[in-house]
Amino acid sequence: MSIVAQYGMSGVFAATVLAGILLILAGVFHLGRVTAYLPMPVITGFTSGIAVVIALGQVDNFFGTASKGNTAVEKLLDWLTGGIFQINLGALRSGVLWCCSWCFIRSAGTTWFQLRWCLLF
Q1: Contacts of 31 (CB under 8 A, 6+ apart)
Q2: The pTM is what?
Q3: Residue 87: which region, alpha, beta or left (left: phi > 0; alpha: psi -120 to 50)?
Q4: 3-state DSSP call for residue 2?
Q5: Are 56 and 72 in contact (CB under 8 A)?
Q6: Torsion of CA 20, 53, 58, 60, to 10 degrees
Q7: H-type helices in the chain, by residue range?
Q8: 121: which of 6, 54, 59, 97 lies 20 to 30 Å off by Cα?
Q9: CB-CB contact of 55 with 61 (8 Å)
Q10: Following CA atoms 52, 86, 68, 45 in sequence, which dihedral angle do they give, to the nearest 10 degrees?
Q11: Neighbours of 92 (CB within 10 A)
């Protein structure tokens, strides 16, 4: 069950404010040094796991479909078993265009500064 479904938008807002307060307190008390005691595989595994959860959560948005399920894995399985045939081509086109643009900008490297100014003016 999602946080919004369980606690509503006020719960999400409260969690966001509390997370911000905790980050500010961690900065004030210089608790960043504590991360030196975390093994690198733990940090890498956590970061990779979050990346997978975020990517699975975006499958419906990328393809313009609506899957049933409470978790990202359930939604992916529902999409693979039936939603794959209901792809919204407009949403898919937008997603592919965004991915290609992102890859192009990442490959531009040092020319990103010039490219950004060309896009603004």
Answers
A1: 25
A2: 0.60
A3: beta
A4: coil
A5: yes
A6: -130
A7: 3-28, 40-57, 59-63, 72-81, 89-108, 112-120
A8: 97
A9: no
A10: 0
A11: 14
Domain boundaries, the chain: 1-37, 40-87, 94-121
| pLDDT tens per residue, range 43-81 | 999 999 999 888 888 888 888 888 888 877 888 888 888
User: Residues for the chain: how many in total?
Assistant: 121
Residue with tokens 């719960």: 11
Please give the single-letter amino acid code of residue 56.
L
Kindly report the number of other CB atoms within 10 A of residue 88's CB atom. Answer: 15
Contact (CB, 8 A) for 95 and 63? yes
In single-letter form, the type of residue at position 43 comes to: I
Look at the block and give the residue holding tokens 């531009």. 108
> Which one, of 98, 79, 78, lies nearest residue 90 by Cα?
98
